[in-house]
Amino acid sequence: MTKVERVVIFSADQIAAYAEASGDHNPIHLDGDFARSVGLPGVIAHGMLQMGLLASVASDAAGGAGRLRRIYCRFAGMVEPGDTVTFAAEDAGPGKLALSAVNQRGEQVLTKASAEYL
Amino acid sequence: MGVEGKTYPAVSSVIEPARVAEFARAIGADLGDGVPPTFAAVYSLGATAPYLFGDPDAGVDFAKLLHADQEFEWERHPQLGETVTSRGHVVSDITRRGMRFLTFEAQTTGADGSKICRSRTLFVIRQ
Hints:
CATH class of chain B: Alpha Beta
Distance between the termini of chain B: 16 Å
CATH topology of chain A: Thiol Ester Dehydrase, Chain A
Strand order of the largest sheet of chain B: 1-3-4-5-2
Number of strands of chain A: 5
Mean pLDDT of chain B: 95
Oligomer: heterodimer
Structural class of chain A: alpha+beta
Radius of gyration of chain A: 15 Å
Helix content of chain A: 25-40%
């Protein structure tokens, strides 16, 4: 199996759309002033938005979303609007995938990421 | 310690096709591929975590909360229109060096009681 990759440039609109679709309206994702008041640089993407994008890449590598049986990741770095993240999945043995998410500075934003499929 | 072992009420929800379509669009997933796996963030984690956040015994300060890691494990994925039931519980609640580590799990089952998904989350709360 070849490596499956997807490059995503994050935007405030995309983060707001995910907040709406997921029901996670935590203001750190939507309100820059609030985010700064709790020590963040500004609004940040939901970890679950990043994981959703990672899972879509894992699904492609697994041969379909319905085959995915497990996914894990650690939310290691913040993703802000304007950041470019490369999500990747590659073969790690029968039914196993090694996953990664790396930003434009080469930093891993999701770590220890893996998946299993049928 | 804390709320370790505490179980919260079960929540039933319908896997609404329009909601799934909106979710799939937001993560750029192919709708033809069925319910996106991490829609579990809605029907499993999302349905149950509000009980934890709203629990005065748990005393979670939302402004100091970090979603540190996440695992989903599926027996199968839910179908569009299916009614599922999720129940959350606190696996462990440990405070160490000014940080609180709360492991929260949700089990999702179908109408017949069959297993669909297990969601396991580590929340870190700065003290």
